[in-house]
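User: Structure tokens for both sequences below?

Assistant:
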Amino acid sequence: MRRITFDLDVLRTFSTGVELGSFAKAADRLGRSTSAVSAQLKKLEQQAETPIFVKAGRGLALTDAGETMLAYARRLLDLNDEAATAIHGTDLEGWVRLGLQEDFGETILPEVLGQFARAHPKVRIEARVARNTELIDRVTSGRLDLALAWSDGAVTPHCEHVTNVPMCWVGPAGEPRTWQASGEEPLPLASLEAPCLLRTAATTALDRAGIPWRLAFISPSLAGLWAATAAGLGVTIRTPIGLPASVQPLVPAESGLPALPSLGLVLHRSEAQSEPATARLAAIMLQAVHNSIPGF
């Protein structure tokens, strides 16, 4: 097979266009003309020697090869940017205190810590995995520099909305099951201890749909919640992020459960102007979130 060396500049244009949902917007963000972007995309298809795009109405959609290319493009660009940061950021020093929701503890945290430590070995990180209320309290009191938390409507002095993540009903892995309660049998719910934003969202959706429910299992930890859900003690509600193989999202139309809204994700900072090490860690974390959420 002929060895192909993909152009990183072309891959960045490709990735940015897909991310923004428009290559015209990508041209504007990257400071290029639309004709230059079109030429880059044509070059990418020529290098790949297979169609990357297919017509979809008035726009373009990715082919199977295009989806594969996008995944590799993001990995190559992440590695390129990490290398550039490592070369120019080796002098960063200090201490950064980071807080995360449990949902991100096993998915985003290892990636973030590994990438940051490789690029900035002189910076020490203290990471804390906790619930929303504790994370926000620690940021506002100055005991955390950064915290990635679900939005409960609370606004801290230095926070930014990251994205909205869809919530979903979650049941044991395997064959789909109709969970809607009937007769005198209320729907069994597995939940984290109160206060819990997702538990409130679940009960509110069920009440509006007129579906009776009962709390069948309450856990102080996400690990306990997954164990109960996998065992079939009840359904729970989370986001698609970090779901273990023992559980699966349930499709509302097939499970008999009501549709759910999205949940805001917010990055809280303790200071308006972060120290360089803190700012760099925030950037790496937001990129990791970007990679973990489809469509973000």
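Moving on to the next sequence.
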Amino acid sequence: MRSYDQYCSVAKALDVVGDRWTLLVVRELLLQGGSRYTDLLNGMPGISTNLLGDRLKQLEAKGLVRREQAPPPVATTLYHLTDVGRELEPVVRELVRFGARYMADPTSDDEQFRGHWLALPVSELLDDTDPDGPPAVIETRTGDRPVFIELAGGQVRTTLTAPREADLVLAGAAQLVLGVLTGQLELPLARELGLETEGSTAPLKRLRYDGPRATGIDTAITKEIPA
């Protein structure tokens, strides 16, 4: 890793996490917790196995990642963020907020998606407007795995395991699911474009989007996703 050779805290931080893929390693460990090497590799489509190994070694050397030899029946190496590594969570969340405005229009036909990536924008950018309302669960089925959104006590949290049977299921392309959750895409249009729903849509009315609006999201999604 090349250094900027600047006596500046921003430059010092970038010396540690500024290389390509490094913050995405942090993203995966924030989302998945203790992760196997194969979990990380699957969560970052496009990275080579050698490059992932190099990034993990660099993060270990800087004290951001630690490895653990898990006992049977797991019996494999698990990677975790250290306390120092977890200090990057607010940075990643601010990047989620900043990048949300660009989510309407993919930059290429080759862009890939993993279901668990939805957890960060949902937990960071959505609020529950009915703190006195009954607990509700929305299940999203997009990408390779479902994400469960829990609304309770005015809080929105996400989990990768089902807390109970969902009140509403949203299934379809990630753009459609995210557009409906954030209120930037009307549900009837999303259904016309292929979104499938099961259950009551009442929980959607409780969600408030607290992030930058993706300019022209209706037009962009209609263009990108064939009806």
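User: Anything stand out in the second?

Assistant: The CA atoms of residues 103 and 214 lie 7 Å apart.
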